[in-house]
Amino acid sequence: MGSQQHVAPAAAAVAGCEALARDLAVPPLWARLLWQRGIHDAETFREVIGKPAALGDPAALPDLPAAADLLRRAIRDGARIRVHGDYDADGVTATAIMVRALHRLAPASAVDWHVPSRFDEGYGVSLDAVWRAHQAGVRVMITVDCGTSAPEAARLADSLGLTLLVTDHHRLPAVLPAVPALVNPERMTRPQILSGAGVALQLARYLLQDEAPPVLWGLAAVGTVADVVPLVRDSRAVAQQGLAALAAGAVPGVAALLDRGRRDVRTVTARDLAFSVGPRLNAAGRMGDPAPAVELCLADDGARGDVLAARLEALNQERRRVELSVRTAAMAEVDQRRQLPAFIVVSGRWHEGVIGIVAARLTERYRRPAAVISLGEGSGKGSARSGGTGDLAGALAEVAHHFTKWGGHPGAAGFSLAPGGLAGLEDELAALWQDRWGTGSVPQPTVDAEVPVSALTPDLARFLAQLEPFGHGFEAPRFRVAGLVVESTTMGADQQHLRLKLAGERVGSVGFGLGAHAADLEGRWLVGRAGLSLGQYRGREQVQIRWEAVEEPPGPPGPLEGNRWEWGRPPDAARALVLVGSARARARLAPTLPPHWQASSWWRPDLAAGTGPAWTALWIHDAPPHAAALRSAVGQLVADGVVYWEERALSGAGVLAKWARLVPDRARLLALWQSRRASRRGLVPGGRVLQDLGLDGGEVPASRRALEDSGRWVAARHEHERAQRDWLLGGPLIWREHMKGATGVSGTWGEEKPAGHQPP
């Protein structure tokens, strides 16, 4: 539905899925989930769930043996060695891996480390960092997770007699640093897929003659998952073996962080690293000094780990507060625009440490690439996210005259503005992006299958757990799930989360960040995007459906009295959402609309659910099904958005007639059942009710089935009754005036109104 991608097996794959289901003796849905992850036979399945995959040969990485030889020579000569890292979770864990490995070969006093502050030195190897290392008597400086884009630093190091070794995994720039060893898998014909921590682990394995202790594997897993490296081939091997090491308690600091996030280290998953450990490690660098994060990764006992974990937890709470402030300001700036460009750029005097997260939130909400720039005195630092379309690093390279420094990946990148570099940046990026990758919106996450809520069972969760680790490039299954909501409540300290109970549900059901939907869901038919998780809570197995987005109802609802209402069509410059009465009407109207408008059917809403308000205008072209649907539509508007009306939308006759068709009585269902028994199709309204009752193929029931056994029928009846009640009140004008009377808030109407439709 909408722009959300739904993967269905091609005709040629259907037979393969069926064969796989037979070979493994599993339900067809389970086999389909395997097939869509490249697991097409029983042998591959056994390999995936069997012993961890082998990590590639370290010696195959360019210059890695040379780097190891230079480090061994420096250790023999008693030279001072410095590890130079990066301030994010990948760089922090890579730093700790290299320091720990060198400490096994050299006296601790001969090895130190430095991770720059993003606020002072910024990303990479600065000239100042090289100079200070030289002054401190360092003779060999080895980088981790950075250095590929530092030719000036390499020239300075050479002039000072300082040996600079580079280990990194970022894209290669046009000019490489002239160093004795540049270890970067991007230099390979078929690169090993590794994070910065993964590259550091490979060098450690070579130095230690493949006797790298579990702590190094555990740290490498954290860096790999936190840096969103695809969990395939080499990175999958790192994550698998690293998670096993973490579960055994090999990294005390990470165990303490997991405890802070209320996660049990004994059952740690890649999801825990992504959502619990990674953000807390990143918080140190985002808020100022990344040193506590490195120290936590170097801690060898639980007590020290607990102290540092508490410090990182406090920094993470502060990061959340600052992020919310910047995100609110950035979205307010975007919402003021009537039309969005193909690439969004916003700037302000904002905290530099959170602009990357805010860029990701803008991309999620407005479904197009975005860059957020923190302005300082005569300078600016930016962070950008692509949302999974196009090549962000490549795009920045083509507008590099705006920057003094830039770098990154196709999906995420950062830059420093040149003097005057902000001027024209958005226009150039938007034109480039539209020309190269079009104006198509960022895709919603791929959905593996459409299922009823009853299909998500503990057995399926345990089966999927065998496939861990899930992550980028090997995603956990997502489902488009449908069911009847029996109970809907909020939870959490600020009631921002959602707890649901659905008819036929076999496991728990929660929606983090979806609490705004709670009041409007009970008794309604819910369709949304969800995953299935298996974990531990207080020593017991916990299986949960985790809702990511709610599509039907499309809420969260907005008040009817808070926006200006006008008659007629919105101006073309507005960002308008158009609501019509059917998919056929939408198809007929859509070609006549400006390209930045979106047409949606009230009955099959194609809204960007879960992204929050994004429209400056709402055009009520056809009558809404009931007041709740209207409130949900108004909830899609920005704060000062305008609701536009057509006179046809004030009549409920067509709406109520449609509801009567959508809530079939027993006679209509009998006619439909007889049609199915005769292998005829048609009489579509009611077909899904027969599916719920197990009669869709014309089967003869063993006993009389009650209509209430169909969740869809119960939900449709609920909606029909709501529509009848609301339209008997008098329709949208009365609904709105009723709301005004209840709240004391008055609204503004446009000057032009059809005769006979003056508000009371």
Write structural notes for this entry.
- By secondary structure, the protein is α/β, with parallel strands linked by helices.
- The chain contains 25 helices and 21 strands.
- Helix 7 links the parallel strand 3 (140-143) and strand 4 (163-167).
- The longest helix is centred in the middle third of the chain and has 34 residues, at 302-335.
- Mean pLDDT is 88; it is low at 739-760.
Notable features of this structure?
760 residues, alpha/beta, 5-stranded parallel beta sheet, 5-stranded mixed beta sheet, 21 strands, 18% strand
Largest sheet report: 5 strands, parallel
Tally of DSSP β-strands: 21
Beginning-to-end CA distance, first to last residue: 39 Å
Which structural category do the helix and sheet elements fall into?
alpha/beta
Instruction: Give the rounded overall mean pLDDT.
Output: 88
Blueprint (SSEs and pairs):
Elements: H1 11-24, H2 28-35, H3 42-49, H4 64-76, E1 81-84, H5 89-103, E2 111-114, H6 127-135, E3 140-143, H7 151-160, E4 163-167, E5 181-183, H8 196-207, H9 214-226, H10 233-247, H11 252-260, H12 270-287, H13 291-298, H14 302-335, E6 344-348, H15 355-366, E7 370-376, E8 379-385, H16 392-398, E9 403-408, E10 412-417, H17 425-437, E11 449-452, H18 458-465, E12 478-491, E13 497-502, E14 508-511, E15 525-537, E16 540-552, E17 564-567, E18 576-580, H19 583-589, E19 598-601, E20 615-620, H20 627-634, E21 637-645, H21 653-662, H22 666-677, H23 687-693, H24 711-729, H25 732-743
Helix pairs in contact: 1-2, 4-8, 5-8, 5-9, 5-13, 6-7, 8-9, 9-10, 9-12, 11-12, 11-14, 12-13, 12-14, 13-14, 14-15, 21-24
